[in-house]
Amino acid sequence: MKCGIIGLPNVGKSTFFNIISNSKVLSKNFPFCTIKPNYGIIKIPDDRLFELKKIINPIKIIPSEINIVDIAGLIKGSHKGDGLGNKFLSHIRETNAIIHMIRVFDDIKISHVEGYIDPIRDKEIIDIELQLKDLETIEKRLKKIDKKNIKIHNKNISSLLRNMISFIKEGKSIRMYPFINNNERKYIEDLQLLTIKPILYICNINNINHIENNIKIKKLQNIINKENSDILFISLKNINRQHLNLIFHSILHLLNLKTFFTAGKKEIRAWNIPKLYTAYEASSVIHTDFKKGFIKAEVINYNDFIRYKDETKLKKLGKIFSAGKNYLVQDGDIMFFKYNINKRNH
User: Alpha-carbon torsion 307, 310, 311, 317, what sign?
Assistant: First the structure.
């Protein structure tokens, strides 16, 4: 899974990228400091790993990971290619979700591409650019299918696309569109629309006092709440472990992920999977051979393991159970997969 960081130039995207991925990419006070996307990996901190370590005492523990991309700043006209906009927008298409950085902090030493600070206007600039690009994409698809002798199936598709065009022209993003069923969503998947991606807004502030009694910030919060999206207020100059944990938790939520564990004397490892993954699907995250030869998974609830601390006792109490292919993995499950080696090559 890949998460992209977007926003206007000079809002703190590269600084944020460096902090959460422990990277050292260039971060300077001029627009388009980032031209090519910077790719990094976030190692997700999870206190449960350390609790398991106390009991199992493995050689190492390995946290789960998420890919992160620092995408160059967008500007007005990006959808037309201004400011290398087409390249930057194509980088957004590669992501599963978006973190939209918005500048709220005041600093006369750091220029603003629009001349002055206005978080609501800045959000709207990015929204409009992404919406206009999606509008262009949908209209191109519509032209391909909108012919005189249309089949009934295509009539339904044509109607969907026209409704989506009207929706965007109202200034709304497709993630808010009221799809009737999953078939509608499935049809437009290959369009790779930018505004259908789940989004997390992070406002880069001076300090926590900056948001109190700030009318524009309150208005911004109301706008984002109506979108059913999350918003965080973080000072990148004063970020601490608590802030980082909040950010990482929010990113997992944004990507709709949960975590399961594999545990042994060699290593304890956390794995991220989509929330509706079965044991069969989860096995392939570890190795494709596990899925090909899947027999079953032995599962222990994390809280049960922490409470009883002993596998023999857990077995006597019936706290270890066998799960088949269709078992829906729960967040925190400790899993041991059994698979048939002879089937893995078939």
Answer: negative
